[in-house]
Amino acid sequence: MLHSTTPRVRAAARPITWSPSITLVPTRFCFNTCGYCSFRRPPDPAGPLADALSDSAAQALLEARPEAAEVLLLSGEVAPQSPQRRAWFQRLLALCRLAWSQGRLPHTNAGPLSLAEMAALGRLNASMGLMLEGLGPAYDALHRHAPSKRLAVRLGQLDQAGRLGIPFTTGLLLGVGESHADRRAALELLAQLQRRWGHLQEVILQPFRPDGAAAVLLTAAEQADLLVTIAEARAILPPEVHLQLPPNLWPLEALPDALAAGIDDLGGIDSSDVINRAYPQPTPARLAAVLERAGFSLVPRLCVHPAWRHWLPPPIQRQAHRAEARLLASSSSGPRSPWP
Ligand code: SF4
């Protein structure tokens, strides 16, 4: 029984994680042509890697964002049989090494990789990623000219990452004409992969948003439709898999609805979104305020989630340990560790 002078015990706020990150784009050239893509650039007459990000340009970007522990490499793709493939892949490795030399943790998402390529990146990356995106006729139509996006290729990559023991991020692109049955079938496939390998640390539930000069916010009906899928994802996927929502693609004041439905992670957040350029990122302070009002707390994390950290090679574990110390020291949320 509480004594009358005992302070009221407040329920602990549910933690919602995010990763301070910076995105480097090795190249926007891509041999695929996805029906919704505003990221891709067509091949440059000077060569497909004419726009490749140099070390000096990457260095300047990294210096401008010293608090970012995660360096997300998000690249257009060079065809596996292309004579440019090797140079492209060497650029990825060089950018990972640059990030590494600054005490950061690379997280690469560069499309399908050979076993040897994925293994090489796995020795430098704390985690890696590849969206499943989805399955069914709507995706088939959008990916008619995107050989990398065939379902069998994507599933093969997720399986390969599991065999290599790489902590992995995948996700679905939602709202391109797919049915709820398509979404559930895709989630079931991810659940099967997770039960087999256990490497899926997070699944992104990404609302498709049109590109343009200004953001087009999700309507109330679209939010309600996606909330159903968030709840289904939570029910279908094993409980250790984090559910992630990019916070700039959801109306900020309605974000607590998505968290209540099952989202527990807001992903890597840079100062801007290189894909959805019309959708500004909320600042961590603004996010924290919205979450706090709704009974959640915003907690920083590294790109590798705590439960997968022991999967990493010892040098990456040591780098993660140092990066975590800096992250917590610079965090405005104080000395609360996101690690167990
Ligand atoms: S694979 Fe990615 S970068 Fe290439 S066209 Fe498709 S969405 Fe765009």
Explained architecture:
- The chain is α/β, with parallel strands linked by helices and 340 residues long.
- The chain has one domain (14-318): Aldolase class I (TIM Barrel).
- Helices cover 36% and strands 15% of the residues.
- The chain contains 10 helices and 9 strands.
- Strands 1, 2, 3, 4, 5, 6, 7, 8 and 9 form a 9-stranded parallel β-sheet that branches.
- The longest helix has 18 residues, at 180-197.
- The protein is globular.
- Residues 1-7 and 333-340 have low confidence and may be disordered.
- Residues 30, 32-34, 37, 39-40, 76-77, 146, 148 line the site of iron/sulfur cluster.
User: What is the arithmetic mean of pLDDT?
Assistant: 93
Provide a count of the helices.
Answer: 10
Roughly how many Å is the radius of gyration?
20 Å
**For the terminal residues, how far apart are their CA atoms?**
31 Å
Predict the CATH topology.
TIM Barrel
What fraction strand?
A: 15-25%
